[in-house]
Amino acid sequence: MAFGHFSQGQPPEDPVEALRAELLAVKQASGLSYARLGARTHYAKSSWERWVNGKQFPPRAAVESLAAALELDPERLLALWERADEARGDATGADEGGVGESANGAGEPEEPGHGAGGAAVAEADTSATPRQRPAGRRRLLFVGAACLLGAAVSVAAVLATGGDSHDAPAASKAAAATGSAQPPTPQCRAAGCGGKDPAATHCGLDGQTLTLTRNKDIVIELRYSKACAAAWGRITYASKSAIVDADNSAGDSFATPVHWGNDVYSPMVAVTGRMTAWACGTQPNGGARECTRHMPVPGTPQG
Question: What's the pTM?
Fold first, then answer.
């Protein structure tokens, strides 16, 4: 599917096409091949070929990683992704988003994945549970709507996912669905978030990826919420029984296995002061384990 470049005129009216056009323009401006782009972002070159050429809708986490890898301001790309995600939801009658590499749209948002107990949770990163994105999976996202004109309205949305991870969109979309002007307030902070679900506590609303790495096919991300002063791990492209854990320098550690699908996120650990946090992904059946870098609170001087 061909799509135009913003530099050659007005962006496409279709938000999905506008996102694809921008991804193509960014890729061409970087001068990187798909293989080098994949190496820098920890996503497969075949995935970038599909996303850039419009064969599949990219996950939010992949767009985030692209901006980070090319040292771009992520706000423009993520704004385009959000509009495209909403447009896809309008077109199908259901919200869409995701973290994996399918026609979906991590993370956090929707964070991809499941809650600490393994059940699907409305977050980000319903995307909640940070969203499940990989490979064309479908998941039901249930959003409880608030009372409107004295009547309680229940809204159920079918979420097509495939890959951010992200952790926040679900809550923000829930607020939009209920007509609320303000997104839900985070329900914990710092040590009070230890062992809790980033989706259920609304910490995924401002979730961001601090660093990521790979364990073979598994992409491992360390996610962070400034509002909650907490971090959690997320893995995508994983097999059943693969494990993700989040750890901090205070000795806290929480882990969660993949119960179904290809991704999951862990409970949270506090990250305050000069503490550091990291996330690890372990292959099924006690296989190889890899961890991200140990990261401090963003903006904290180290030394």
Answer: 0.48
